[in-house]
Amino acid sequence: MFKQIGPLEIVLIFILVMVLFGAKRLPDAARGLGRSLRIFKAETKGLHDTDGAPDAPVAPAVAGEAAPDTTPRAQA
Question: Per-residue DSSP letters for 2-32?
């Protein structure tokens, strides 16, 4: 369906973008795109980290020994 994009096509796309947006707006647009990608990357990394294993490794219980109480308690 699509051919590979070569150097000539990249130059034509760059010229088209320069004509449409102007040279003054391109740095602001690139900066905004970079910030958006950075935020997106941080959020997806955060989601990936929370889907995995629990925060602290759980020690296996020894037979005859009670497991430690890890329920959160309200502070008075």
Answer: -PPP-HHHHHHHHHHHHHHH-TTTHHHHHHH
Residue type, position 76, single letter: A
Residue 39 gets the label, from left (phi > 0), alpha (psi -120 to 50) or beta, of alpha
Q: Give the pLDDT score at 3.
A: 73
CA distance 40 to 50: 16
Using alpha carbons, list the distances in angstroms from residue 63 to 13, 14, 32, 67. 69, 69, 58, 10
Cα 72 to Cα 10: distance, rounded to the nearest angstrom? 57
The string of pLDDT tens digits covering residues 36-67 is: 999 999 999 888 777 655 555 555 555 655 55
